[in-house]
Write a structure and sequence with these properties.
By secondary structure, the chain is mainly beta. The chain is 11% helix and 47% strand.
Length: 803
């Protein structure tokens, strides 16, 4: 018995000793002025290297062996604070005071900068730490976005005087839960399984707000999804030539160490760069935490990106949390003090799942059919933390004002309509382009079109249109019947009939979307009257690889002077009958297709677009022409540190056999020297229908230098300079088959060079958006230049909008 008692006392003594000698100190780091959390602050025992980092929410936890103890708490942009603890007072709040400027001055030391070997090792290990290194993965993200006002902001005071509506609540709150899938090399799929936005039932806002940032710091260029601007990553190869780095601290945690390194642009470097700090862990020299702020002097908004990574057994490092904070830099801006905060938590990570090609459909983001009914239950178990009092008050406030917020709902419906290209109704969609259109041949064209939607059937679509040209005084009409089948209904068989007008040289069904406006179409002045019936089968081999087969029978009547030459006799042809069978394969990456329940719309520019189309004219169904027609094209864009963004396009066409004028190639004109709007990858000095060929090759390249060699000191101007070059070769095998219309053959090569200055004038709208204006000057030269200089020069206007 005495032995048992001794054992019990000994056991209790050991437990007591453990608790006395190893205690946990918990706390949170806050900004002393705003009381907001300070992420990734370093917490270190004074005069040692033992310590830890606060997480993305400013919270930290560290083992303390004995008291009293002094800890040093520091973070880039804040004054270091030393605190003496006589005993454990967990949890504690540590407030840091901000220093003037975003970062302290870089300390210049003699000899080798100790930060550079660490950065070089991290850069060398980018591929082994990049989340996209895996063949495939899936995860779930919980996203929360809220907008708030600083209580010291002028806008807050103005609104508070009118109504105390934002005293105990945020401006708005939005939440979503998204399932993500990835398969190498670039297949991505997202499904929104839950969403909720204060005051808005339309899922559009919740969908767009899930797309605030990527895991791109391991790439050469980090692309902001907010501004679509590319910033050179601090871990890019030879990043030390563009960034200044400083080793601020080293923390030892077990067998690993964490290096805290600040980075900022070198003076006089005029490429898009970031400012901030990064925590590099010696375990695989991976990013443990990073805070990066956009360094754009030409923008009023300030974008800060915060990411926290975790290391998983046998997997390595993977993002765990991320924040994006958008604020307004200019204190004179009426919106100064307004802040958007986006938070994400990543969970349910699954590495290398056995995805099949069929697991990815062409739509990159879609909303689950159950999201409307299950959102509340899914959100309640997915939240990072429970909703704050202010966030709950925000939801309650907008729900109580539901009847007064119909205007907000209508605004999002209008935005959705513009993105989709049609007005979505319960049973049918009304394409915008069928309401009103314009070209030089028809003048103003008015009409009406429709297409059934999921309200009637997902598998069957019926559509049609009718239009009338004011200038040509002719009716146009058509209809289509489409059957959708296969997994995710991504295959379809479509039967079309139409009586319409069409420019000669047009290749139908290259991009099957008659809902979109094309600026080039406005200049069309030479038309064929076309009566066509087509049968089209389309399918996706992969989410970004499309193929289709098309059988077309049509009758064309040129509505212009067209003289065929046959045995030296000129004949004015009518009823040109043609039957054509064709196949198309198209590969496209970079753009995003979203389906939020009312249809598919596209965001983002393609980074790669390639296609090949082979067609055969056959003498069947009373057809008159026998030919083979091949078209190939490829375009892409990429970034370099020295020269900025390079974009290029290559295209070629080949026709074997005799084809009439309507099926030949007529150059890639943007309308001629007297037109005012710039069209990319087109000849801005070439006149419409000036050249004809049955074999051609064209190449365009544009080099956007950005602000690398010139930066304007004025806010109303932020010029980005580009240079472009285009070349076109054309050949015609049967030059005597027609005498009208007049034409040339560019067998010696058509040359055009241009200089484009974008964002030459910037007008700020609503203190948020910039309306940008630029100008382009293009010169035609070489064998096909004109005698008068004015006939070789074309001035073009550029317009765009940006934040």
């Amino acid at each position: 018995m005495h032995l048992l008692i001794r054992l019990i006392y000994t056991h209790l003594f050991i437990l007591f000793s453990i608790h006395c000698t190893a205690q946990t100190l918990n706390g949170i780091v806050l900004d002393s002025e705003t009381k907001h959390v300070v992420p990734f602050a370093s917490v270190r025992i004074s005069n040692t290297r033992q310590g830890t980092n606060a997480d993305l929410n400013g919270k930290f936890s560290m083992i303390v062996n004995s008291y009293p103890i002094t800890i040093n708490v520091s973070c880039v942009g804040y004054k270091t604070r030393s605190i003496l603890f006589q005993d454990n007072k967990s949890p504690i709040e540590v407030e840091l005071k901000i220093v003037s400027g975003e970062l302290n001055e870089i300390t210049v030391r003699k000899g080798i900068n100790p930060a550079l070997p660490i950065i070089k090792k991290a850069s060398k290990n980018r591929k082994r730490n990049n989340p996209d290194r895996f063949l495939a993965y899936s995860y779930q993200s919980y996203n929360k976005v809220f907008a708030s006002l600083d209580s010291n902001a002028s806008l807050y005071r103005q609104m508070k005087e009118r109504k105390k509506i934002f005293e105990n609540r945020e401006i708005f709150v939005s939440e979503s839960v998204v399932q993500h899938k990835y398969k190498r090399p670039n297949q991505r799929q997202e499904k929104i399984i839950a969403f909720k936005t204060s005051g808005v039932q339309n899922p559009l806002l919740a969908s767009l707000l899930t797309d605030f940032q990527s895991f791109g710091f391991y790439m050469d260029w980090f692309v902001s999804s907010i501004t679509d601007k590319s910033y050179l990553s601090p871990l890019a190869p030879n990043g030390n030539t563009k960034y200044d780095f400083e080793l601020l601290d080293t923390l030892v945690n077990g067998t690993d160490s964490t290096y805290i390194i600040s980075f900022r642009p070198k003076p006089s470097v005029n490429i898009p760069l970031l400012t901030g700090f990064v925590h590099i862990n010696t375990n695989k020299y991976a990013i443990e935490n990073i805070v990066a702020t956009s360094n754009d002097n030409d923008r009023d908004i300030n974008i800060q990106i915060q990411q926290q990574y975790q290391i998983l057994d046998s997997i390595g490092w993977f993002p765990e949390r991320s924040n994006t904070i958008i604020s307004f830099r200019d204190s004179t801006n009426r919106l100064s003090g307004l802040k958007y905060v986006h938070k994400s938590l990543f969970s349910q990570l699954n590495i290398d799942p056995s995805f099949k090609v069929s697991d990815f459909n062409p739509v990159n983001r879609e909303i689950a059919s159950s999201a409307a009914t299950l959102s509340d239950s899914i959100l309640s178990v997915s939240r990072i933390d429970s909703l704050s009092v202010m966030e709950s008050n925000t939801y309650d406030f907008y729900e109580s004002k539901h009847n007064k917020l119909k205007g907000v709902e209508s605004m999002y419906t209008i935005i959705e309509t513009a993105l989709l290209g049609y007005v979505p109704l319960s049973k049918i969609n009304l394409p915008l382009k069928d309401f009103i259109n314009y070209n030089k041949f028809e003048g103003l064209r008015l009409g009406l079109g429709f297409q059934t939607n999921d309200g009637i059937s997902k598998m069957i679509r019926i559509g049609g249109y009718i239009g009338y040209g004011i200038k040509d005084q002719a009716w146009k009409y058509g209809g289509d019947l489409q059957f959708n089948f296969g997994k995710d209904l991504n295959r379809n068989l479509q039967l079309n009939y139409e009586q319409n007008v069409e420019e000669p040289g047009t290749i139908p069904y290259m991009d099957q979307n008659r809902n979109r406006y094309s600026y080039r179409e406005f200049w069309g002045s030479r038309m064929d009257s076309v009566r066509r019936i087509s049968l089209i089968f389309s399918s996706f081999i992969r989410s970004n690889l499309l193929y289709n087969f098309c059988l077309t029978n049509e009758v064309r009547n040129p509505i212009y002077d067209y003289q065929l030459t046959s045995n030296d006799i000129r004949v004015s042809p009518a009823n040109l009958k043609n039957t054509e069978i064709s196949g198309l394969i198209r590969y496209r990456t970079g753009e995003k297709k979203m389906n939020l329940g009312k249809g598919v719309f596209i965001t983002g520019k393609p980074t790669t677009d390639g296609y090949i189309r082979i067609a055969r004219g056959i003498k069947s169904f009373n057809a008159m022409f026998d030919y083979i027609k091949i078209n190939v094209g490829f375009e892409s864009r990429f970034q370099t540190k020295l020269l900025g963004e390079t974009s290029y396009q290559l295209a070629a066409g080949y026709i074997a056999g005799k084809a009439p004028y309507s099926y030949l190639y007529n150059g890639e004109s943007a309308g001629g020297v007297r037109k005012w709007g710039y069209i990319n990858n087109s000849f801005n000095t070439m006149n419409l229908y000036e050249f004809v060929s049955d074999k051609y090759f064209s190449a365009f390249i544009r080099q956007n230098l950005g602000q690398r060699f010139f930066r304007s000191p004025f806010k109303i101007s932020s010029p980005e300079i580009s240079f472009s070059q285009g070349v076109y070769f054309g050949f015609l095998s049967h030059q005597n088959q027609f005498s009208q219309p007049e034409y040339k053959v560019a067998k010696k090569g058509y040359l055009e060079s241009g200089m484009i200055t974008d964002k030459l004038l910037r007008l700020r709208y609503l203190k948020i958006v910039y309306i940008d204006f630029g100008i382009g000057l293009f010169l035609r030269y070489g064998s096909y230049s004109k005698d008068e200089l004015s006939e070789n020069l074309s001035f073009r206007l550029l317009t765009s909008a940006s934040f």
